[in-house]
Amino acid sequence: MLKAEEFSFNENITVVDNAQFQAHYSLYEGYIKKYNEIDAIFKAGDDQPGEANSTYSKFRGLKRGESYSLNAIILHELYFSNIGGKENVVPDSVLKLIERDFGTFENWELDFIATAKASRGWTILAFEQRTQRFMNMSLDTHDMGGIVLGFPLIVLDVYEHAYFMQYGTDKVSYINNFLYNVNWLTVKDRAELFYNLS
Ligand SMILES: [Fe+2]
């Protein structure tokens, strides 16, 4: 059984206000609840595997719901923990990797912003392990559009529920404010799983 991680609004979070943050957090708790419901059905043996069918079946519905809700949980935890950067300074070691694959930091930012504008669900700067390169991934839902070996370094939620209460239709301001509020120390920690960054 999964428990929701604690994420609290604080003065370092500037991309969203407290009301928007709290509303978003409650949606995250909802995904935890649904995942646990699905998991309990599997554990109880009430998943009807013998009837599994790709057009319609209870088992298919559970498997779709399982990946949808678990991806939602993971992505929201990554998002909540990579906002609130006190100082928006990109560590040199991370900057070098971005420049390696995008030429300049500005090129990466332009591509990230364009990807976010084009996405309906999530935009992720990922280390893609097949190509061994950083790339900006575009997801339209929690479970659609991600590259399987793309490890998330920066996660931006662009579902309307993430910003609409505060920003209305001004998605671009939300994206720009997110970029000012990225917690680059968290990003560096994630990149260090693959690179020895001093
Ligand atoms: Fe969200």
SSE order and pairing:
Layout lengths: L17 H27 L13 H24 L10 H11 L2 H14 L3 E7 L4 E7 L10 E8 L6 H4 L3 H10 L3 H8 L7
Antiparallel strand pairs: 1-2, 1-3
Helix pairs in contact: 1-2, 4-6
The structure holds fe (ii) ion (FE2).
Enzyme class: oxidoreductase
Family: Belongs to the iron/manganese superoxide dismutase family.
Protein name: superoxide dismutase
Q: What do you see in this structure?
A:
It comes from Anaerosporobacter mobilis DSM 15930. The chain has 198 residues and is mostly helical. The protein has two domains: 18-81; 92-191, 3-Layer(bab) Sandwich (minor pseudopilin epsh fold). Helices cover 49% and strands 11% of the residues. It contains seven helices and three strands, in the order H-H-H-H-E-E-E-H-H-H. It has helices at residues 18-44, 58-81, 92-102, 105-118, 164-167, 171-180, 184-191, and strands at residues 122-128, 133-139, 150-157. A three-stranded antiparallel β-sheet has the order 2-1-3. A hairpin with a 4-residue loop joins strand 1 (122-128) and strand 2. The protein starts with 17 loop residues before the first helix and ends in a 7-residue tail after the last helix. The mean pLDDT is 97. Bound molecules: fe (ii) ion (FE2).
Strand order of the largest sheet: 2-1-3
CATH class type of the largest domain: Alpha Beta
Please tell me the overall pLDDT.
97
Strand content: 5-15%
Number of strands: 3
What spatial form do the alpha-carbon principal axes imply? globular
Bound molecules: fe (ii) ion
Number of domains: 2
